[in-house]
Amino acid sequence: MTFATLFDIPQEDRRLLTRWADVVTSPVGPGHVVRSLDEKIAIFREFNDYFTHLWNSRENAPPSADLISMLAHGETTRGMDPREFSGTIMLLTVAGTDTTRSSIGGSLRGLNLFPEEYRKFRGDPSLIPAMVDETIRWQSPVAHTRRTARVDTEIRGRKISKGDKVILWHLSANHDEEVYANPGHFQIGRESRQYPSASVTGSTGAWGVVCPRCNSACSG
Asked: 220: burial class by Cβ within 10 Å (0-12, 13-18, 19+)?
């Protein structure tokens, strides 16, 4: 797991990242990962306690190359508010695990549904980067994101006022017929590879695309 390595988490604890990511994104109730709000809150506290311990241990140790140590010793981050640190790590954990699993599964489904693309890909390993990008476009591991408009603007005649909440549906954008010919087709090596999923603003959005790209490429 990319983020487990970046955080330098002990091997025996790495499975916890996947569990925590599932808890963050799961509804509460019977049949879900967590059955009650109290259970979800308890797991959030477990997550927070674990990374607070990591922060403290790295803060009291010489600087190293892992992300937690960089945050603990960085000139602009070493005094980070505990709540900001916990929220940042939680967002990075979800961005790095959920999107990666979704992308890898999406690539397998795409190659299975379009055997001609599988044959093309299998015969030319240099297509791995193009296959990963097409997976991100076709499968869209990030379904949607919401942002707050910072200024008044207008898009295609629709006025958006400062402070409005705006939702970008990546799945729709990635299958826009005005941009992609036959968008429902899984086609490795499309001419246009600047996909909206790779254009999410903000650090967590960027990581949410970088991680599935790296992991999917390694799996390929």
From this structure: middle
Burial 45-77 (b: 16+ CB within 10 A, else e): eebbebbeebbeebeeeeeeebbbbebbeeeee
Can you tell me the distance from the alpha carbon of 55 to that of 151, in angstroms, rounded to the nearest whole number? 37
Compute, in degrees rounded to 10, the torsion defined by CA atoms 98, 102, 103, 109: 170
Other C-beta atoms closer than 10 Å to the C-beta of 88 total: 16
> What is the radius of gyration, based on Cα positions, of the chain?
20
State how beta strands 144-148 and 165-169 pair.
antiparallel
Give Cβ neighbours of residue 146 (< 8 Å, ≥ 6 apart).
Answer: 165, 166, 167, 168
What span, in angstroms and rounded, lies between the C-alpha atoms of 110 and 140? 12
Regions of the chain where pLDDT drops below 50: 198-208, 216-219
pLDDT in tens, 103-153: 888 999 999 999 999 999 999 999 998 998 899 889 888 788 889 999 999
Give me the amino acid identity at 166: V
